[in-house]
Amino acid sequence: MLAFHLLVCGVLAAAMVHALPEVKVRGTTISGRDISSNVEFFGGIPFAEPPIGALRFRPPVFKVQLNTTTFDAGKYGKACIQLLLWTYGGAFVIGSSSLYDATELVQRSIQRKTPIIYVNFNYRLGPLGFPQGQEADDRRALNLALEDQITALEWVQANIHFFGGDKNKVTIFGQSAGAIMTGVLLLSPILERLARGAILESGSSNGLASFTASRHEGSWQYFVSQVPSCASVATSGNTFSCLQNATTEEITIATLQADSITEFVWTPTLDTGRNSLYPDLASRLYSKGRFSRLPFIAGTNRDEGTGFASQQPLTNEDLKAMLIGLNTSPGGSPGIEATADKVLALYPADPAVGSPYGTGNELFGLPASYKRHASILGDMTFEAPRRMLSQAAAKFGAKSYAYQFTDPQAIPALGVPHTAEVPYVYGQVPPTAGAASQNLSIAVMDYWISFTVSLDPNDGKGVKRPRWPQYKYANQVLLQLEGGNATVIQDDYRKEQIAFLNKNAQTFNR
Questions:
Q1: What confidence tens digit (pLDDT) does each residue in 289-332 have?
Q2: pLDDT band at residue 11 under the 50/70/90 scheme
Q3: Which residue has the higher pLDDT, 354 or 75?
Q4: 3-state secondary structure at position 178
Q5: Annotated catalytic, 188?
Q6: Which pTM does this prediction carry?
């Protein structure tokens, strides 16, 4: 279901404190429940019609009416006006809004007297969210998950005032796949009428190689062949009609089977059609200044690649084949072999310079190639794209802030891996992490809330924390987020390697 979860600051009249919260929305109401004395939860609110049957593989259909009980929404105060909307990650194939509980984040906003409304939503995943192949292109059924994201924002624009929110003060934030999706929307002017700021955690629009839908024709055909009721039409070029009648169970099982043998394919797709959300490679659009000027925060974790690196031995030839295979267009990518050779030369087979960084020659019982592979993946997929985005924003006058999250984690072989910052943002760092990490979580929440409220992470409210400088072309700096060691650093680590990746981004279709 395409639906919302909302956490709202409870500013009810005293006589209503013990009643279940209800909000009237366009002649109908939705009922919620109290999370605490100050926070109310509204879950499962549909913002679009269910994308099943004839609506499968179609753009979302805006949900106009809800069917619940009645309630006088005038009892809500106006203190809770800023809104933070989350887009979850999960490699575009897994995830759910219900996995994220922002109670602590909203409570923190109340404690610092800058209350916010938190919203998250579900979007279509896998082949339902990112159909591939020529048929999807011909039917204008590309990037449906991005359409879901836009429709969620449009619902907020139309209805958030019923919850005491201000539609003109929306910040969209996301992590991993959710950050990549948000990054793609930053390439389109449409986002500027739906939000005023963005936060991208470990993801930006050029984090993955991007292609037109025809590049993954074979992957689409294999997926359809794994749907028992549709296997006979897998190569027909006319699969949508059958798939619209397939069961959810069939689709789910087929997606899992397809993912087990195909490359990373269910991702945002280049679309050269009219009103496209993703008309060209992000690196090319950045170079021309063709992106939104919304203020944003963008950052990464120190060891982004460790969770994705192979723990099996890899030769130089294996790594080169991976670089070429994942990044080559159907017609070939000129110069990619020589470029891949140069990448491998810049990332030598020396564990002391691999990821997790700062661990010397320690191999953690893993093959020596693990740290090399992790370094390449982390830089190509996360670090280089973030730096390119930050530099483009600075060059073309968009206000931005950048960070690197470096707080030590529990598993040494992973270092500070992908997703490590998420518990800190949500105020869910386990007590065993220690006081420094607990205090860092409070500071991170304050930075995020401050940006949501003022488009500046330095509002002076909440805990005392280092001032976070704006990323400028003449002063390219990051805030290092580490418990007991939050400080400003230069954005110049692995300068030669990352500069080469960004110089050759178009060779790698990024």
A1: 999 999 999 999 999 999 999 999 999 999 999 999 888 776 66
A2: very low
A3: 354
A4: helix
A5: no
A6: 0.90
Local structure of 248: helix, strand or coil = helix
**Tokens at residue 429, please?**
């760092």
Strand order in the sheet with 82-87: 33-34, 39-46, 3-9, 116-121, 82-87, 170-175, 197-201, 296-301, 400-405, 477-481, 487-490
**pLDDT tens track for 435-447:** 999 999 999 999 9
Model pLDDT, residue 1? 57
Cα separation values, 243 from 83, 138, 212, 239, Å: 37, 16, 21, 6
Give all strands (DSSP E) within 342-490, no chain letters.
400-405, 477-481, 487-490
C-alpha span between 230 and 246 (Å, rounded): 8
Residue from 97, 109, 176, 375 carrying the catalytic annotation: 176
CA distances from residue 262 to 219, 228, 265, 319, 356 in whole angstroms, order as listed:
6, 19, 7, 18, 28
Going by the DSSP 8-state scheme, the letter that residue 417 receives in this structure is: B
Q: Which residue has the tokens 């500013």?
A: 11
Rg of the Cα atoms in the chain: 23
Q: 363: which 2 tokens?
A: 């191999």
